[in-house]
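ERR on first pass: missing label on line 2. Operator R.T. fixed the label and resubmitted. Corrected input:
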Amino acid sequence: MWLEDVGLRYNRRGPWVLRQVKVGVAPGEAVVVLGRNGAGKSTLLQLAAGVLRPSRGRVLDRPSVVGWVPERFPADQPFTVDGYLAAMARIVGLSPITADRAVRRWVDRLGIGPFRTVRLSQLSKGTAQKVGLAQALLRPPGLLVLDEPWEGLDAAARELVPQVVDEVLADGGSVLVSDHRGETVRLPGAREWLVADGAVVERAPSDAAAVAVVELEVPVGQLPATVARLRAEGHHVLRVRGQNAPPEATRPGAGPSSEVAR
Amino acid sequence: MTALVRFRLAGFLRTGRALAPVLAGLLTLGILYGGGRAQPAEAYGVSAVVLFPVLAWQTKILLDVEPDVQRRLALVAVGPAREQAAGLVAAVVAGLGLVATAVVFPWLVGGVAGPSLPGDRSVSAGVALGLWAHLLALPAAVALGALASRVITRSAGYGVAVLTLGTVGVLVLGFSGSVAPWLAPPLLPTARALVGPLSGSTALLLTVWALAWTAVALTGYAQARTRRA
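pass 2 clean. output:
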């Protein structure tokens, strides 16, 4: 799916929220959309999902089935969880039997079974958010758009979001996720778009730039040989800490028995 | 689309906000038929005029009951054209309920009488013409209500203003001798036509007029919706 020179403003005389956005996402790809509050992340996601129409430019090759999880689920509706999801399943075009099966599957997976007969307006924020997630997945989406999906979710459900994303990707779908709380690490391999000043720029893939620190325990006798071998393999040896040296992790290179190498 | 129509009707009926226009409709009909007996066709012509704002208001309520984000979810699910059409169809279905009430109501309270003088229309002809008058009013009212809905006007004040302007327009522009009768749907002309004998060409003209006005208003609605999700 491609956004071709897409610009958007909410009013004819209003300011451009996004301008000349040229980005694309291929099947099987996930993109994390980053940016400050009010930068236009939600606007970009809604353009991709087809909620908003671009004021300029166009969106090409949008998959026919789109699942959109809004930032806040509209809980002010006179339906129970079951009634709502069943209705949404019928609205997206599932037959009564498939609709029933899809609702049961996602109710079970998201752990909202105990709330099936509860009215939407009485749900906690996290549970309502899960209903929002469920409605987007009733049909396997070719494009899944998640606006701050981790907001208000409990630990178990947080782990579920990357699983769901992986499943959509495995089925050849694309996924767009916005995030401002650094949960992005849960989606390794995702591309990153940064929204700022009305523009969207691609950041270097996080895989290449990301660095991890490994602590090793090595017998003192083999220390020089091990360090030499690690360096030969292209690793950065940050420092070597002596057996009796105090564990001063904050100031590498301060003690006599420490060595720092870059 | 049927599923979305049913979903929206359910949302409208379950909130209790459906009660307000129904009560307003019954009140209006009660006042209208409280005065005495009339010939069915004449009475129905006036009934269609007075129910017009109620039908438009009911449409606005039905469309506004759904939260904005839910409307966008429906849009993502079925696409913009069907999302808009489903809202209008739901409003028409709800309006048909009020129209049916309006047609039956005068017979329950004795507000209409059968033919008494030679030349009076038969009861069935009167009812048929009355139904026709209401069915001319309904699409125009739905279009006005859609234009007054929150997704278009974005504020309660403008919404009420659109409803009021539309209703006042129908009355002011509809009087005989009006300078620009074409700017409003032909509710008063229809009511006047139902007093005397009605020719086929007049009936056809009124029908085309009402439908054309509705088409223009709905085009405006669809146009406005391209920039408003």
